[in-house]
Amino acid sequence: MSAPDGLATELTAELAAYYDYLTIERNRSPRTVESYESDLKQFLEFLAAQNEPSLKGLNQRLVRKYLIARDKAGDGPATRNRKLTSIRSFLHYLYRRGKIKDDFSDLLQSAKMPKRLPRNISEDEAQNLLEEPEVPKKIHDSLEPWRLQRDHIIATLLYATGIRVSELTGLTLGSLSIAGRMIKVMGKGRKERIVPLPEAILGDLEYYLQKVRPTLLGGKESQALFPGPDGRPLTRQSVNLRLAALGQGNGLMKHITPHMLRHSYATHLLAHHADLRSIQLLLGHTGLGATQRYTALSLQELQDTYLKAHPHGK
């Protein structure tokens, strides 16, 4: 990337070296590097307009001034935080190379994100989602009915266990114990946990292992519990797409995601009087803070019910 007009040759060279560092040493994807380039180009254009054409002009005041300008330009908190992350990373790099005297990046505070309650589906919607999928007559692919059955099993497992989609795609044949009614999950930070399986799902899982999975593999070898056509685990993106399609096929208006099923799992447990500590362990949260938001969600639903049902609420 070429630097904007007016920037010193020194800065241009440092940026080129920085992008090489991201690609080669940090093994960042081309898409990530492009994102950093875009963010830093915008930041450097701002510096040029401030008559700060070299590294010596980089300071805490200027970065804050830039973020205020982006706020006025209409950037939301998430966008500003992403751009600040790009700037922080560049500043860390410059400091380690001795190009700036002080690494002030840690003094720059991220924008506060608005607190959003998790999205979930109702118990009735979950029941509709988990009904056996009907195969549309227009489908001519002989494997598609089997894929639909696999998708149904995936949706059922996600709702029945509350595991993350990354945990689902990481499951192997050794992760599942039907006799023990549990799955072994590798969560965040490589922390392993045991999640119980309800009896109602065991028959579906046995059928999947005996009929659906071998048919989809077509003789290929794979240790993945949910393999794709090449035998490798399904990607998170493919699970997201298939789950959304399953929800639409079952007549749900909402865009169903694995994360939504995880939230629904926790919310419905809480609604049926499970304690927060148990939900925390089942979800693999490191602390109760992340779990307590489901209390807020339950209270909001309770309030919504009151407003709809009580004479004074209408």
* Strands side by side in the biggest sheet: 1-2-3
The CATH class of the largest domain: Mainly Alpha
Overall number of structural domains: 2
Mean pLDDT: 81
CATH superfamily of the largest domain: Intergrase catalytic core
Report the sheet with the most strands, covering strand number, pairing sense and barrel closure. Answer: 3 strands, antiparallel
Name the helicity range: 55-70%
Unreliable stretches: 1-8
Beta-strand content estimate: under 5%
> Strand tally, please?
3
Q: What structural category arises from helix and sheet content?
A: mainly alpha
Under CATH, the topology of the largest domain can be stated as hpI Integrase, Chain A
Rg, rounded, reads: 25 Å
* CATH architecture verdict of the largest domain: Orthogonal Bundle
Shape estimate = elongated
Listing every helix as H and every strand as E from the N terminus to the C terminus, the arrangement reads HHHHHHHEEEHHHHH
Number of DSSP helices?
12
Structure notes:
The chain is mainly α and 314 residues long. It has 12 helices and 3 strands. Helix 6 runs antiparallel to helix 8, helix 10 crosses helix 12 and helix 11 packs across helix 12. Helices cover 56% and strands 4% of the residues. A 3-stranded antiparallel sheet has the order 1-2-3, with no helix packed on it.
